[in-house]
Amino acid sequence: MFLNLVCPMSTQDTSTPDWVDYDKNHVWHPYTSLLNPDPAYPVIAAKGVTLTLADGRKLIDGMSSWWAAIHGYNHPALNLAIEEQLKKMAHVMFGGLTHEPAVTLAQQLVDITCEPLQYVFFADSGSVGVEVAIKMALQYWGAQGRPQKHKLLTVARGYHGDTFGAMAVCDPVTGMHGLFNHTLARHYFAEAPQCHYKGEQLHTNIDSFQQLIHQHHLSLAAVILEPIVQGAGGMRFYCPEYLRQVSDLCEQYDVLLILDEIATGFGRTGTLFAYEQAQIEPDILVLGKALTGGYLSLAAVLTQEKVTNGIAADNKGVLMHGPTFMANPLACHVASASIRLLLMSPWKRQIKNIEIQLVKELYKCKALSSVAAVRVLGAIGVVELKKPVDMPVIQAHFVQQGVWVRPFGKLVYLMPPYIISTEELTQLTQAVYHVLSTMDHHENNNG
Questions:
Q1: 159 annotated active-site
Q2: Among residues 344, 364, 389, which one ends one of the domains?
Q3: What is the rounded average pLDDT of the residues 316-334?
Q4: Which of 188, 260, 413, 433 is catalytic?
Q5: Which of 124, 140, 149, 159 is catalytic?
Q6: Per-residue pLDDT at 10 exceeds 80
């Protein structure tokens, strides 16, 4: 797509700082080649929902910096939290020591999640949080004298991170990790949920999942999946009923349930956590991304007493994980401030308003010949195309429209900060329609 489109020339100053050239030659960006790197646009400032480039151009951010900056950028309350903690200590090891920011954050997380989740383990990132959750499940069954329960069951089209344990439960095709299939642990994949989020939920395609958990439950340590929204594996939404049935089957077959809410936690789908929509309670919950409001990398793994006591059943109870920057005080303090900021804000109304506007303004993309589907849930809007995008070219067109939208594969999607204004969101949706309609026009004229 877009292979022969010519981007309009910018009228902005095209001079760039020296460090931008060094970046091109020496800095490796995610999912890129150093031999032929995609362009990386230099950002020199960010405030509210706006990114400022080195050449002076301003972009409305539709990505929340990979879904993390839910309050936007440079927020006074979060800046103050960083400054306050910095005056005390930026970091201290968590082995053998503790500190108030970590304890305060743990208490907040226990208070806002379902009642059985009473214990918190802090990790460096979402991917590492998934690793910790998997370790918890494996150690749980090992301590029960059942080490044969060491496999995982998940669903196709899922995504859980870039580290090796997480990669092993990502979809082998859409999970971006096919190069490593020969070295990854082998787990079980049921069919992806097919029931639509909206409308009558009289039937789900649970049969594939049910067959696998029935057949392999004696070797299954846990089920892991993203509740309601499958994120980087396809931006797919599925009905709460499917998740309820998964939870029931886990209980029936004595298999732990791990929910990965790294992308969906903290309001993105319209409830504080997506699992609430299915009225279930996971054994282990993984949080990340928006946890710190996009300021610093941090993840949290919450678990029930059943799991903590189960790990301790061998009279050792030592969870074998300990990141150097676990529970970093700066990250914990700003995370506490971010949670307070969220709970004090009209976040439910903000999410609902974003959802209504995305439906109204993105659905007109359905008329474009290049578009396969459009779907919206909470503050997530997705336009699925029939063919994969040419990333560097489509990215340049979005930048030319004054917006930051980062598609992948066949997906052009928006996950803006919750504070975005109606006018700013309209600029994003209009840019999506304009760029995709330009693509349609180009392809139609070129046969």
A1: yes
A2: 344
A3: 93
A4: 260
A5: 159
A6: no
